[in-house]
Design goal:
Layout: H1 2-15, H2 19-22, E1 25-33, E2 40-43, H3 45-55, E3 60-70, E4 73-82, E5 87-98, E6 101-110, H4 121-125, E7 133-134, E8 144-149, E9 155-161, H5 167-172, H6 177-183, E10 194-195, E11 198-204, E12 207-213, H7 216-223, H8 227-244, H9 257-261, H10 268-271, H11 278-293, H12 296-307, H13 310-319, E13 322-325, E14 334-337, E15 340-343, E16 350-353, H14 354-365, H15 370-383, H16 391-403, H17 405-415, H18 425-442
């Protein structure tokens, strides 16, 4: 049935006609669309057919397609060129299937992929002629990834970053942070336990071209490993980096905690309203899930700090020294190679308290039971000399919530169909308990308590 439904969707996108899909929908199916910039829900086959004319108007020629099969359905990433305008259009379809029929169909917009461009001469001269090709990937930023080979025969990955095309870059004040960190020698100053695959960075007319060793094997070690067992190595390495750069700011291009805090602000959907990026379109739903499900006391405390984060930022700066932060330290960006951690994607590298890297890692690593989260917190304590976590970690947990990550976890748990990767109910309860405990120990950050 999966192959038939997928084929029907591809046919519908090719013709612009929902009729090919009608027979595969369950009675009273639900369509959730974020195409217009916010969540719109439609129920029933007839209503969905009317909505389809807005979601995928007109026929199109498919230029990219991938599908991931899950127990509850499948994720489909498809790009097409709409006729007759020639406009590229990319959507992500999450299709929930019950008893062989589509019960939920979620459609997200995404930034269209762009073809490989000409590389700057210094990079092109270092490569084997004709070896450059597109690298299929599931990323949603404005970057283009390519495979190539150096003159030595070594395989490399080339990343073309364009800050003006990437909403995260715009939000974090990034003008090519990954490239600048290479040019300024920051990567060379990393301690022995952690490294980056970047071997060259060259400015281009619209951003930077980053040349990296192909470390896909190292990444698989983490992605397919036990999160707690891998966490021991990963946390020890990043803790060494934090110690090496403690009380120093190695580069002026690092993101500030204030900018990082605003990445997933409730205002972000309005700021990015003209963009095609997926995540900003989902933030309204995330914040609504948090406000509805966190409990009045916790929700009010967090939302007050969303409106005015100055007390939180001041308390965090006073409680913990600043250091170099990776900024996006999570399993998808990490590998282990020869006993060293290889860290990708330094585009969100920050200058702030080490605890921010750890809480981000914790949120993106342990979506299962409380035991994994407790084990990782204990490991963080151990690699930091056995010192019990103080208010700095509590403030980092609050920072995490004010930034919107707890809201995102709650929204994913609540809105994603069954049978797809998502946080468990236990994960949501754990974060809400942890957040409540943090506020109890920190007190009222408005200075009134």
């Amino acid at each position: 049935m999966t192959d038939v439904i997928v084929a029907a969707l591809r046919g519908a996108l090719a013709t612009g006609s929902f009729a090919r899909l009608r027979s595969f929908y369950a009675p009273e199916p639900v369509l959730e669309s974020y195409v217009t910039g916010h969540r719109e829900t439609t129920v029933g086959v007839d209503a969905i057919e009317r909505s389809w004319a807005r979601i995928a108007p007109g026929p199109g020629v498919e230029t990219y397609f991938s599908v991931d099969v899950h127990p509850g359905g499948y994720d489909i990433d498809v790009q097409r060129t709409v006729r007759p305008t020639g406009r590229p259009e990319r959507y992500l379809h999450r299709i929930g299937v019950v008893d062989g029929r589509v019960s939920r169909h979620i459609v997200y917009p995404s930034l269209p992929r762009e073809p490989v461009r000409l590389l700057p001469e210094p990079v092109a001269k270092s490569l084997v002629a004709g070896s450059v090709g597109d690298l299929a990937h599931r990323g949603f930023s404005g970057a283009t990834l390519m495979r190539a080979r150096l003159a030595s025969g070594e395989p490399v990955v080339i990343k073309h970053i364009r800050p003006g095309r990437d909403w995260l870059a715009r939000a974090s004040g990034d003008e090519g942070r990954e490239g600048w960190l290479f040019v300024e020698g920051v990567y060379d100053r990393l301690p022995a336990q952690i490294t980056t695959p970047v071997i060259d960075a060259v400015a281009s007319d619209d951003g930077w071209v980053i040349v990296m060793r192909d470390v896909s094997g190292a990444l698989d070690t983490v992605r397919h490993g036990d999160p707690v067992a891998c966490g021991s190595v990963l946390l020890a390495a990043v803790a060494e980096m934090h110690r090496a750069f403690r009380d120093t700011r190695p580069s002026a291009v690092l993101c500030s905690p204030a900018d990082r805090l605003r990445l997933f602000s409730p205002l972000r959907p309005l700021i990015e309203r003209r963009g095609r990026d997926m995540l900003p379109k989902t933030l309204n739903t995330a914040w609504e899930s948090f406000a509805d499900g966190a409990g009045d006391a916790v929700a009010d405390a967090v939302l007050r700090l969303v409106a005015d984060p100055a007390p939180l930022l001041s308390a965090l700066a006073a409680e913990a020294p600043a250091t170099l932060l990776h900024g996006d330290y999570r399993p998808d960006n990490l590998g282990v190679e020869g006993g060293r951690v290889v860290a990708l994607d330094w585009g969100l590298a920050c200058h702030g308290p080490a605890e921010l890297d750890f809480v981000w890692f914790l949120s993106n690593t342990a979506w299962a039971g409380d035991e994994a989260r407790a084990a990782l917190e204990a490991e963080w304590e151990r690699v930091n000399g056995g010192h019990r976590a103080g208010l700095a970690l509590d403030l980092a947990v609050i920072f995490h919530a004010v930034m919107g990550e707890v809201a995102f976890v709650m929204s994913e748990a609540r809105h994603q169909p069954d049978g797809f990767p998502k946080p468990s109910a236990a994960t949501v309860r754990w974060w809400l308990r942890r957040l409540e405990q943090a506020f109890e120990r920190v007190g009222d950050l408005r200075g009134e308590g």
